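Regression test attached.
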Amino acid sequence: MEESVLEELMPYIVIGNLAIVAVVLVAGGRFLVRKHALTSDVPDSRQNVAEFIMNFFVGKARDMGDRDVVLKVAPFLATCFLFILICNLMGMIPIPVLNNPPTSYFSVPLGLALCAVGGTLVLSGVFNGLGGAVKHLFWPNPLQWISEITDVMSLSLRLFGNIGGEHMTLVLVTSSVAVGIPLILHVLGLIPAFVQALVFTLLTASFIANVVHKHEEHAEARAKADARTGVPAGVPEQTPPVVEGDPAVA
Amino acid sequence: MEVVLLALVTTIPIGLGATVAALSMRRISVSAIEGMTRQPEIAPQLFTAMLIGMALIEALCIYCLVVALMLAGNVGAA
């Protein structure tokens, strides 16, 4: 009886849990980053934690391109990662209704994957222009756009399969053996919770890198053309100083 | 009889899929660990590449799981 009531209420529970995740993230962000206390000198402990978290994503985005790219891409990746991580970790909370991770219901991963691929398309439009973004979908292969659909499918199914499977196993085991063994499963569940969030973010990053890379190639080609026509480039090429008679070389 | 066959049909794909995925993942992790021990300085890059490769293989296994779940729903109905 109680089971069926829970089953009926499940959409509302999922939405409520998503709202809780959002509140946790916003409150945590507000707590870690106090605007007036931010400094480039010696940061306090909160800023240190925030920088530690952001460092990874900024590094990922910095591999793709310049400051412009980093400012647009790094927050996107960090949002993906933190949101999915907190969603996955909801399963560890020992409170009956709260312990349903939202990512174990297919609609949530599907929405997240649509956001990720849609965001990639939007970033493609931002960096390459609308024409470039549309061209990217149909050129060099006219069926290139199918890969966007399969990307959505694979991203969402992977997240759903891992977290949903984990959750299902946990529910089945807990219903038969309530003490002891679920603890082990919880500890093991921490690994996919972290790894799946990371994998989702890394795959999104590689999709974005594909899109941004074209933009960078265009920029480089333009810079080369500028150099040929005699317009001074932004950064002069530097040749490393040659030390003659270096004892280390000899 | 039919129910037994249907039950087998739902369980065999996920078993096969998990086996093959496990073998391929073993291959990936062995190569990655070999690379990391030979060149510890590129270990972080190898680790992320390893995770992406594993995720791509794991997706195939997850497809098996999803198909098995869908079939299992039909077994309950039959």
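Expected vs. actual: identical. Helices of chain B lie at 2-38, 43-77.
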